[in-house]
Design a protein that fits this description.
This protein is mainly α. It contains two helices and no strands.
């Protein structure tokens, strides 16, 4: 059982790292947009909300991938 947990943990590293990198990019882009005074308010709002939405989608996809790995469904292509 523990050997299988180690396999799952090894397969979770890459999706978590990629999500953290993309999440950091979206977060800092949103903060940067909010800190630039020359950008009009509505444009600031839009340029901050879009990365926030993309971050939410990225986290959702990570959660689904974690569930797939834990359930043993390693490859989505096997469904087709």
């Amino acid at each position: 059982m523990e050997d299988q947990n180690k396999k799952h943990a090894a397969k979770l590293v890459a999706p978590c790292v990629i999500t953290a990198l993309i999440g950091g990019y979206y977060f800092f882009f949103g903060i940067l947009v909010l800190c630039v005074p020359e950008i009009p308010g509505i444009l600031k709002f839009l340029l901050a909300v879009i990365p926030a939405a993309l971050l939410g989608v990225t986290i959702y996809v990570l959660v689904e991938r974690i569930q797939e790995i834990r359930s043993g469904e390693e490859d989505d292509l096997s469904k087709y």
